[in-house]
Amino acid sequence: MPLILNQKSTDNESILAVWKITESIDELRNLLKSFTSIQPLLKKTTNESLIKQQLSIRILIFNFFNQYHLSYDEKGKPFLDNGYSISISHSNEYAAILLDKKNQCGVDIEKISLKVDRIKHKFLSKNELSFASLYNNDIELLTVMWCAKEALYKYYGKKEVIFDEHLLLQLNPTNLSCLKGEIAIGDFHQHLDLATEKIDDFMLVYTLQPPSV
User: Fold this and answer.
1) Could you give the CA distance from residue 4 to residue 96 in angstroms, rounded to a whole number?
2) How much is the pTM?
3) Percent of the chain with pLDDT over 70
């Protein structure tokens, strides 16, 4: 399981890791010292890709915290019991986690594909659609925008989110590797910086620690 990306903040309070899953299910099981603790979860599916992703996420957690346990709240947001916020994402052979001791966080990784062009009107605002059209609806750009919205959604961690209304993006035409996001839902209002990276045919987007007020 090659570690493709392993980034830590200077204070070690924010950690980003991405693994490329190359092992079989049996090999991944052997990497887990306590496989029985997640057997009930894996019994819920026979999808080989999903099983690999679930195993890989827990191996990543163990690498940093020497524990496998991952819980989910009533909204489906994952959490740990050690004070760190966690966001997880997986797509095909990649698994990613973002950990933050001080703030909520969000990460998303997606394969670059034409599908995002067909659904762009479902998650982009009118202004964002206009921006994308300036770049001829470039598939990599649209994938970045989709991943960014997913990362914001995971940061917020609650349901009933309208992506083209509640999650907004500000992109810099001269630097598309960095962008700003805004979550505006009722009384909740948060501005966030996001970073992007391309890994093979996949796009990774993750929230950065909020700027100091």
Assistant:
1) 10
2) 0.92
3) 92
Strand partners, 107: 206
Q: Please check whether residue 161 lies inside any domain of the structure.
A: yes
Q: Kindly report the CATH number assigned to the domain that includes residue 82.
A: 3.90.470.20
Looking at 45, 79, 102, the residue that finishes a domain is: 102
Token pair 């964002």 is found at 128
Identify the burial level of 133 via C-beta atoms within 10 angstroms of its C-beta, where 0-12 means exposed, 13-18 middle and 19 or more buried: exposed
Average pLDDT of the residues in 36-47: 69
DSSP tag of 103: S
What confidence category does residue 92 fall into, taking pLDDT thresholds of 50, 70 and 90? very high
User: Residue 53's closest CA among 17, 27, 82, 89?
Assistant: 89
